[in-house]
UniProtKB/TrEMBL annotation:
Protein name: Beta-ketoacyl-[acyl-carrier-protein] synthase III
Gene Ontology CC, one term: cytoplasm
InterPro entries: ACP_syn_III_C, ACP_syn_III_N, FabH, Thiolase-like
Gene Ontology biological process terms, A to Z: fatty acid biosynthetic process; secondary metabolite biosynthetic process
Lineage of the organism: Bacteria, Pseudomonadati, Pseudomonadota, Gammaproteobacteria, Oceanospirillales
Subunit text: Homodimer.
Assigned EC number: 2.3.1.180
Uppermost EC category: transferase
Species of origin: Pleionea mediterranea
HAMAP family: FabH
Active site, renumbered: C112, H250, N280
The organism's place on the tree of life at top rank: Bacteria
Catalytic activity: malonyl-[ACP] + acetyl-CoA + H(+) = 3-oxobutanoyl-[ACP] + CO2 + CoA
Key words of the record: Acyltransferase, Cytoplasm, Fatty acid biosynthesis, Fatty acid metabolism, Lipid biosynthesis, Lipid metabolism, Multifunctional enzyme, Transferase
Note on domains (UniProt): The last Arg residue of the ACP-binding site is essential for the weak association between ACP/AcpP and FabH.
Length: 368
C-alpha cells in the first residue's frame, strides 16, 4: 500500500516591526486609503534578521505542533528567493540553528510559488517511500530588494516565514495532487535584476536593485495560471467547487484573489485572506495563511483544501490536500526572534534615503 503524506505541524514567524500605509504615505506620493483600495494591504512586517533566523523560529513552532524533535527529520526544505547566502544554502543554516546534523537540506527558488513547489517535492518523496518526515518552510525578505522610490513596488511587500511538518501516514488523508508550471516568456515582467552571475564580476552596481514590475501583466497572468492550476488539481482529485472546504491563494493583491475566486465560483466563506496584515510575503504567504486558518478554526478534520500560488519566472502551481485528523498543536514552542528594533520606519530609514539618493531624487522631509 502506498503511504500518504500529511501535514502534522505548522508554525510561523512574523517580525514585530510593523510598516503601516501611513508610514509609506510619509515619503511616497500616496495615502493609506489609496493603498488599501488597490491592494487590500493595511500593514506589513519588516525585518533586518536573516531568513534563516525567521525560518528556524517558524520551523521550531511547526515541530512542536507536530510533537517531533528536529533530530527526527529526514529533510529540511526552504523555499526562498532571499536567502542568507547562495553558498551555503539557507536550509543548511536552518539545520544548524535547529541544532541537528545529517538530514537533507534543500533550497527551492520558485519565487512566490516556492512553497507549493517545495511541498510537492517533499510529498512525492514521502509517497514514494523515500523519506518519512520533513520540514517545509516558505520564507522571504523581499523588502531587502525594494526600491523605496517606486510606489508600485514599495507598497506591496512584507517579510515573514511559515512552516509545516509533513509525515508519512497510512490514513486516507494528506497530499492528493499537484500541478506545477512556468511560463518563461514572462521572465521580464517581474524580478530582481543585477543579481547572480549574469552580472559582470567586477560590475559596480548601485545598492538599489532594479525591480521590473509590470502590474497589469502580472495581474492577468496570476489569475489565469492560478485558475488553471486549481482547476487541474480539482479535476485530478475528483472534486467540484462544492467539495472544497478551504481555498488559500498567494496573498499578493486582494484584487487578484477576488477575481480568481470569482472565476472559480467559490463563496467568500471558503476563501482565507490575511493580506491586510502582511502584504506580499512571497513564498511565506501560503504557509502563514494556512497556519492562521488553523488558528482561526477554519480547518476541520477531513477538509478538502486547495493551495495555489504564482510568482516571478513566471512560476505557478496548486496542490490539493485532504486534512488529517488533528487541527490543534501537540505542543507550543516558545521560540522567537532575538530582540531587536521594532520601529519599522526607523529600521528602513537609511535604506529609503539611499534609494532616493541613488535615483537622484530629493529626500522627503519625513526622512531628514
Amino acid at each position: 500500500m502506498t503511504q500518504n503524506a500529511v501535514i502534522t505541524g505548522w508554525g510561523k514567524c512574523l517580525p514585530p516591526a510593523i510598516l503601516t500605509n501611513e508610514h509609506l504615505a510619509s515619503f511616497l506620493d500616496t495615502s493609506g486609503d489609496w493603498i488599501t483600495s488597490r491592494t487590500g494591504i493595511e500593514e506589513r512586517r519588516i525585518t533586518h534578521k536573516n531568513i534563516s533566523d525567521l525560518s528556524a523560529v517558524a520551523g521550531k513552532h511547526a515541530l512542536a505542533a507536530a510533537g517531533l524533535e528536529a533530530s527526527e527529520l529526514d529533510a529540511i526544505y526552504v523555499a526562498t528567493s532571499s536567502g542568507d547566502t547562495l553558498i551555503p544554502n539557507t536550509a543548511a543554516r536552518v539545520q544548524n540553528k535547529l541544532g541537528i546534523r545529517g538530514c537533507a537540506a534543500v533550497d527551492v527558488n520558485a519565487a512566490c510559488s516556492g512553497f507549493i513547489y517545495a511541498l510537492t517535492q517533499v510529498a512525492a518523496q514521502i509517497k514514494a517511500g523515500m523519506m518519512e518526515k520533513a520540514l517545509v518552510i516558505g520564507a522571504d525578505r523581499l523588502t531587502y530588494y525594494v526600491d523605496w522610490t517606486k510606489r508600485n513596488v514599495a507598497i506591496l511587500f512584507g517579510d515573514g516565514a511559515g512552516a509545516v511538518v509533513v509525515e508519512a501516514t497510512d490514513d486516507n488523508a494528506g497530499f492528493q495532487f499537484s500541478h506545477l508550471g512556468c511560463d518563461s516568456d514572462g521572465l521580464g515582467i517581474l524580478g530582481v535584476d543585477k543579481m547572480g552571475t549574469n552580472v559582470p564580476r567586477y560590475h559596480d552596481h548601485p545598492g538599489a536593485f532594479e525591480v521590473p514590475f509590470e502590474g497589469q501583466e502580472i495581474y492577468m497572468n496570476a489569475i489565469a495560471e492560478m485558475k488553471r492550476s486549481s482547476l487541474e488539481v480539482m479535476k485530478k482529485s475528483g472534486w467540484h467547487k462544492d467539495d472544497i472546504d478551504l481555498f488559500i491563494a498567494h496573498q499578493a493583491n486582494i484584487r487578484i484573489v477576488d477575481a480568481l475566486t470569482k472565476h472559480l465560483k467559490l463563496p467568500a466563506d471558503k476563501v482565507f485572506i490575511n493580506i491586510e496584515k502582511y502584504g506580499n510575503m512571497s513564498a511565506a504567504t501560503v504557509p502563514v495563511a494556512l497556519c492562521e486558518a488553523l488558528e482561526a478554526g477554519r480547518v476541520n478534520a477531513g477538509d478538502n483544501i486547495i493551495l495555489t500560488a504564482f510568482g516571478a519566472g513566471l512560476t505557478y502551481g496548486a496542490c490539493s490536500l485532504k486534512w488529517g485528523s488533528r487541527t490543534t498543536p501537540v505542543a507550543i514552542s516558545s521560540a522567537e526572534l532575538a530582540p531587536g528594533p521594532t520601529d519599522a520606519l526607523s529600521l528602513l530609514k537609511e535604506d529609503i534615503k539611499r534609494s532616493y539618493q541613488e535615483r537622484h531624487q530629493p529626500i522627503p522631509d519625513a526622512l531628514k
